[in-house]
Amino acid sequence: MWKTILVPHDFSSCANHAAALARDVAKLHGARVVLLHVAELPPMLGPGAAVVPDEGGAPINVKDYAMRSAESHLEDLANRLRTDGVEVSTVARTGNVASEVADCAKREGADLIVMGTHGRTGLAHVVLGSVTEKVVRHSMVPVLTVRVPDGD
């Protein structure tokens, strides 16, 4: 029986499918869901790099902007799951995605990780790598991967 389900979310359609499946599993098992977003900031951006938010106003540190944006998106997703009767918490981090997923799974006591996969093959897989594959290889708990149906 799973009690805590971690759902790494990159705000893609396959991550939405994974979250929907995690919601269904959570309802079945009475589990809570932890939505995680990890922003992997480009290494060429220094700590002083800033952007002007879409809403206007003063420039803001890139990391702070990424975290604010992620937290807002995660909270929106969490509220949708909550309306379906699921207990949900959110976590936003910066860093290496696969490492942060492993750290979060340990911190939150996750029994299961549910994550989407883009299903890239060939050169795209070689160049972009696969975060899901890295998580599957190194996870200490079961990982359920969800691929988006063709045409989605």
Number of helices: 5
CATH superfamily: HUPs
Strand order of the largest sheet: 5-2-1-6-7
Distance between the termini: 31 Å
User: Could you tell me the radius of gyration in angstroms?
Assistant: 16 Å
As for the CATH topology, it is: Rossmann fold
- How does the helix and strand content classify structurally? alpha/beta
Mean of residue pLDDT values: 87
Order of helices and strands: EHEEEHEHEHHE
Largest sheet: 5 strands, parallel
Shape: globular
> Low-confidence stretches at least 5 residues in length (pLDDT < 50)?
123-128
| The CATH C-level class name | Alpha Beta
Helix share, percent? 40-55%
Care to count the β-strands? 7
Percentage beta strand = 15-25%
Number of domains: 1
Secondary structure: elements and pairs:
Blueprint: E1 4-8, H1 13-29, E2 32-39, E3 50-51, E4 60-61, H2 62-82, E5 87-94, H3 97-108, E6 112-117, H4 122-128, H5 131-138, E7 143-147
Parallel strand pairs: 1-2, 1-6, 2-5, 6-7
Antiparallel strand pairs: 3-4
